[in-house]
Amino acid sequence: MILVGLLSCWYLLGTPSALASFDDDSFDGNIFALYAGNGSIVPPRITLEDSLRRTKPALLVFYVDDSRDCKLYSVTISKLQEPYGRAASFIPVNIDTLLPDATYTPTEAGYYYQDLIPQTVLIDQNAEVVLNEIGQVPYEQIDDVFREVFNLLPRSESVELKLRTVNDINAQLTSE
């Protein structure tokens, strides 16, 4: 019995910690799945070239998984995907996948990268860059540009964009 207790203690003490943290620059895994609760963003469902061909706006987000700033910013990107994810392409680009000496074309995400992270680039339906910012851009700033791209009312004149929960939809169906 004592041997089992000693082995259990040895096992618990020898097991590395699996705690992820916003507060450091350590690699914990995919930041969108871990911190933003949105593993559906990575890998992107569409390339920039395909998005431009379909005349669909594209939000490029350049990041690395081992950056505190990118970890915090992943939550903002995930929140933006809720109202705009069907109408715009969300294309996160891990900069570790970009080749340093490569020459990119305007239909490739690497063309827009400026060597700093996080970087956010919004390209409209006409393939024009309408937002290109470095750092943690506030949700409201990106939302304002999305509203211009989609010709929506300003936030001050509009109701909040919200998805209805499944229960709200079911309640409406049963009451009709």
Q: Overall 3D geometry?
A: globular
Radius of gyration: 21 Å
Structural class: alpha+beta
What proportion of the residues is helical, as a percent range? 25-40%
* Strand element count: 4
Order of helices and strands: HHHEHEEEHH
How are the strands of the largest sheet arranged? 2-1-3-4
Instruction: Give the distance, in angstroms, between the N- and C-terminal Cα atoms.
Output: 65 Å
Q: Averaged pLDDT, please?
A: 85
Total number of helices: 6
Strand content: 5-15%
Structure report:
This protein is an alpha+beta fold and 176 residues long. The protein is 35% helix and 13% strand. The chain has helices at 2-14, 31-34, 48-53, 68-84, 139-149, 166-175, and strands spanning 58-63, 89-94, 119-123, 129-134. It has a four-stranded mixed sheet with strand order 2-1-3-4. Strand 3 and strand 4 form a beta hairpin. Helix 4 runs parallel beside helix 5 (139-149).
Summarize, please.
This protein is an alpha+beta fold and 176 residues long. It has helices at 2-14, 31-34, 48-53, 68-84, 139-149, 166-175; strands at residues 58-63, 89-94, 119-123, 129-134. β3 (119-123) and β4 form a beta hairpin.
